[in-house]
Every structure is written in C-alpha cells, then in structure tokens.
Amino acid sequence: MSAIKIRFLGQLEGSLSAQSIAATLDAQQVDEAEDADLVVMKPADLEELLEDAAATAAFHVTRDQESLPATMVDHLLAGENPVKVWREYRGLSQRALAARIGLNFSYLSQIETGTRKGTTATLKKLAEALGVDLDDLS
Questions:
Q1: Which helix (H) or strand (E) holds 8?
Q2: Could you read off the pLDDT of 49-102 as tens digits, one per residue?
Q3: Whole-number mean pLDDT of the chain?
C-alpha cells in the first residue's frame, strides 16, 4: 500500500506541525498541490485564500466598468439627486440634457430638486442619455 501524498499550504508549509502530521499519517509530502491526495491548511489560511479568490472574481467582473471619482461617489452617498450628479459628471447643463431627450428643462430641474419624480419612461431616456443604467438614477 502506497503512502498518502500530502501537501501543506499557508502557515503549515514547512512547519514542525506539518512534519508531525505527515509522520503520524505515514504520508509522503509533495511540493505541488496537483500531486497531492490531501491538501492541508489552517482555517485562517483558507479564509484568506477565499477572500483573494473573491477579490479576483470581483475584479474580473467589474474591470470593464466605468470607474468613478471618489467625490462623485461622496455626492451620491450624501443623498444628492443622482440625475444631477451624473449630469454634472458628464459635463452637461440642464438645458443640454433636456434638449438631448426632448424634455422641458424646467421639468428636468424639478426632477433634480425632487419636486417631481419623473416617469419611468423619462428616467429611462435620462439614463440612456447619461450612459448609465436606470438603477443608477434611483
């Protein structure tokens, strides 16, 4: 019967604990995880590995998305109207944005100040003109 091939990762790698575990199991330590029958690590190392994998996955999902300056995010988090924040970020005046979607600029002003909500159709047009998702305006 051949010995179990074991690979230790993280804090256990090369430690006396790893040597003791391998001896107790009569296991052969291998250098590559792919060659191992069993991979052993501490829970904290596993948590760190999972966090790294989640961060990498999040990066790959969002890497093609537009990044925003912190000041813009601060304005949104402070509760400022997202239509106004995005309009200003895109460098448009109220008149220019309203003209772009065929809207009266005073109606746009009322949406930005919160005195009117705007219909879903209007918000969709605004989102398209600003190059954002409808969710970004709510």
A1: strand 5-8
A2: 999 999 999 989 888 888 889 999 999 999 999 999 999 999 999 999 999 999
A3: 92
Establish how many alpha carbons lie within 13 A of residue 102's alpha carbon, considering only the half-sphere containing its beta carbon.
Answer: 4
Distance CA 83, CA 118 (A): 11
Instruction: Write down the H helix ranges in 1-134.
Output: 16-24, 43-62, 70-77, 82-89, 94-101, 105-113, 120-130
CATH of domain 70-137: 1.10.260.40
Q: What is the pTM of this model?
A: 0.57
Cα 113 → chain centroid: 30
Domain ranges of the chain: 5-62, 70-137
DSSP string across 25-45: TTPEE-S-GGG-SEEE--HHH
Percent of the chain with pLDDT over 70: 99
